[in-house]
Design brief:
Layout lengths: L12 E5 L3 H12 L4 E5 L6 H14 L9 E4 L12 E4 L5 H14 L5 E4 L6 H4 L9 E6 L8 E6 L5 H13 L3 E5 L8 H17 L5 H15 L5 H8 L1 H11 L11 H8 L16 H21 L10
Parallel strand pairs: 1-2, 1-4, 2-3, 4-5, 5-6, 7-8
Antiparallel strand pairs: 6-7
Helix pairs in contact: 1-2
Length: 319
């Protein structure tokens, strides 16, 4: 069992490796929580100025001071003093070999009681940790975009992860104002993405069969049952509605649900042809610069309003 070092944010030095969208959001979350020091490694030196400015702007919107004295942004892991790092969060691209190489480097240069975590959503934590010395300190720590807005974070146990380390990370994330859940088995997609993909499989099947348009599928989720999910998850909602009613409906509906083992062609064909959504200007919807700006502003506003609606149910930041 590893000696526990992770305590309160205000006494902790956290290292985020990767300054892309996820790494940036996680950095904002940790700085908002008041970590003593936040080291951020981003190899693209040309991106540093804009990255630092976006982080400062996000904190300013929360009426928090600029992180100049607590944020240490660098291009190389070797530029940092690592002897007092308490928690590492890896956010590099989803390439297994790159992640494995990074964690080999981290295991070699970090104190043996530093907690090592990956934000990967694609690979089993056990695969990333394969061959590492002291694998008990290796965990998944999976955030959701935007990481500083969406409260949920999944703490994932790999095959050799130490449950005491996981409990420490969960307690730390609560002190950061997040809602951690424990993934007890290292299954593909963990918990939230498995639920999300189960919904998406049926959604794209309905579109492919001509049962519903893209717009109507989106509306059914946003303004129908999905609208209720902010107030109650799928289990609690059935407590409200009646488990007997759900069980009876499930017996009728389940046999006709999509159980395909591959993505629907209507989805796979879009990806194969480069119609990737906003990043390419077309997906299921068509996008121009003005439309993207409008949609992103609307999306951010709705998320912010939703966060306010559940604010009294979230853990308070406890630095």
């Amino acid at each position: 069992m590893q000696q526990r070092r992770l305590e309160r944010p205000s006494t902790s030095h956290c290292l985020v490796v990767g300054g892309g969208t996820m790494g940036e959001g996680i950095a904002i979350l940790l700085l908002r929580a008041g970590v003593r020091r936040l080291s951020l490694v981003e190899p693209r030196l040309e991106a540093h100025a804009a990255l630092r400015e976006r982080i400062a702007q996000a904190l300013a919107q929360l009426e928090l001071p600029a992180p100049a004295q607590r944020l240490h942004l660098t291009g190389e892991l070797s530029d940092l003093a690592l002897d007092d790092v308490d928690l590492v969060i890896e956010c590099i691209p989803e390439v297994l070999a790159q992640k494995q190489a990074l964690f080999r480097e981290l295991a070699a240069c970090m104190p043996p009681d530093t907690l090592l975590t990956s934000n990967s959503s694609s690979f089993p934590i056990s695969a990333i940790a394969a061959g590492l010395p002291g694998p008990g300190r290796m965990l998944g720590l999976h955030f959701f975009m935007p990481a500083h807005v969406v409260p949920l974070v999944e703490v994932v146990l790999g095959e050799h992860s130490d449950i005491v380390c996981a409990e420490d990370v969960m307690a730390f994330m609560r002190r950061c104002g997040s809602v951690p859940i424990l993934v007890r088995k290292d299954v593909p997609g963990f918990i939230a993405n498995r639920l999300q993909h189960a919904l998406a499989r049926e959604a794209f099947s309905l579109i492919e069969q001509g049962i519903a348009s893209v717009e109507d599928v989106d509306a059914a989720v946003r303004f129908g049952f999905g609208f209720r999910y902010l107030a109650a998850g799928p289990v609690m909602q059935k407590e409200h509605a009646g488990i007997d009613i759900h069980a009876a409906a499930a017996a009728t509906i389940y046999p006709s649900l999509c159980n395909a083992g591959a993505p629907a062609a209507v989805l796979a064909d879009k990806a194969a042809s480069g119609r990737l959504g906003m990043k390419s200007g077309e997906g299921f919807y068509t996008w121009d610069a003005a439309g993207i700006a409008h949609e992103r502003a609307r999306y951010a506003r709705v998320l912010a309003d939703a966060l306010k609606a559940i604010a009294d149910e979230l853990p308070a930041v406890d630095p």
